[in-house]
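User
New here, help please:
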Amino acid sequence: MIRRPPRSTLSSSSAASDVYKRQVSTQSTGTGLSIAMGDDEEPLPEWPPIWRGAENDLVELHDNPEAAEVRQALQDAKQQLVVASSAVLEMRNKIAELKTYKVEPKCVQVIHACFLLNGTNPSEIEDWQEVRRRLTPEFFAGLTGFDHEQHAPSKQIESKLSKLMDQIDPESVKQSSEALLALYEWVTAGRKLLDEARQLPFKLRELAGSVPEELTGDVYTDYENQCIALELAPHPHLLPRKHCQRSRAEARAEEFAKDPKGKGKTDAVGESEEHVCLKVEVKGYRLDAGSMYALSKCLPVCTTCVEMSLWNADLDMSCFSHLAAVLPSTAVTKLSLDWSLRHLEAKSSSISLLVGEGTKLSSLSLRSNNLDAKVVEAICEGMETSDTITSLDLSSNSLGDAAAAPLLATLQQAGSTLTTLALNACDLTDGFAANLAQAIGLREYTEQEQSDVSEAQKAADDVIERNSTLKKGAEPEPVPSVPEMIVDEQGRALGAANRTLVEILLESNLLTIAGVIALADSLSHNGAVKVIYLVRNGVTPEQELQVCDPRVFLSETCLLYTSPSPRDS
């Protein structure tokens, strides 16, 4: 409500008259076109259009010329493979004649390379008689239906394929037969396609790091401006109403009306505190590719946004590609894509882009995304080349013991950095629990590891000695932890197989008391693990009494007869 001053004070030069006019102007901004700020008028921004994902999908997005050129190189490689596959079909009868050869032909390495590129185990094709037997219609179907995303060979097989191709002389192949030449050209085209597909995300990451000069670093403002430029409706979760330009303008006018002389907190300070983006969060709404594309232009210049959570956002391949390309150029270190990748194609090759070389992520959550063994293998291979990920959550994926097994090998690697591993509701049994117990239990230490433990003990002893000589009232230094190492009857130095894992979550699985006891026993010489959560497994309250280690958390009832768990303390 605006209180009109007395008529005697409404002269054109009175201060009360100026305040009144500004108040009237501010009140009219709900339907007007400008906001009066002293002697200046600020145009009032429009409200963002209502978001409809289907309408955003119809907006054509144009890559910059560099990105378009990179993507075109991949398309060209795919076309070359199509041409090579057609040539193989034309030579099909001549290739099939190789089955009649009792002695392997010259340049037989070409045929071996075809099998390897299709993912065949090298040990299965060492004998020529076995190779002859495999030259079936399925062999040709594998060549013509090769998919670089679904059937890409493992790194180990690809390494052997590279060595095999180095042994082949192209001129010798040309002189041998047209059939072998067609196969050679197919292998060459397939390897080129794999190489282009492998380089694509890295090239796009480099381009994602170069951002438009007009960006401010304010995610909300930059995102809205990008949507305006692209003629997109901003996603309501990426641009909440209070952060849009219209709401900010009205807030500035209201603040000016209350404090026209600016004696209180300035608008700039107020906005900088209120509109700082610390986390990007989408919950329950589909995230369309256009919104993700606009956001990918803004995130690289924002230094405050360190977390992204997309819950049930139904990402498609285009949206995920933009996300994977831009992440390494941002400040985001914590990523959660729970329930968002259920319909994503080529999950293994796609998700590997999040954890491979160049990633900054320290925490990754992929709960309930229908993940399988290939995805787990891809994640583990990616973590071999990255030492940043400390927390991994794959809960609510029906993995089973076999699919989750690669994680155990990762835990046993010397460079493992995982401190938290969550595998709740993954259909895991006592077999997995027994293998996990070995992965975190005792193993023989190498000489280097023994030396590391000795140095750590010496450093801890030095700190203890310095603390003992401190003057009264002085704050003591924290004593560094020392991994436990014992010597068995055979004189072997044994210690924890994994010294980084702190928290393990295996709730709602299929474990019985046998698996639980195996895990509890493995903790006897592993001081790094602080807690293992095993709630809602197949263990009765009576059986819980058999587990004495307070770090094994079975249910609320265990609090009656064990000390509190680390989470409670």
User: Anything to note?
Assistant: The longest strand covers residues 279-283.
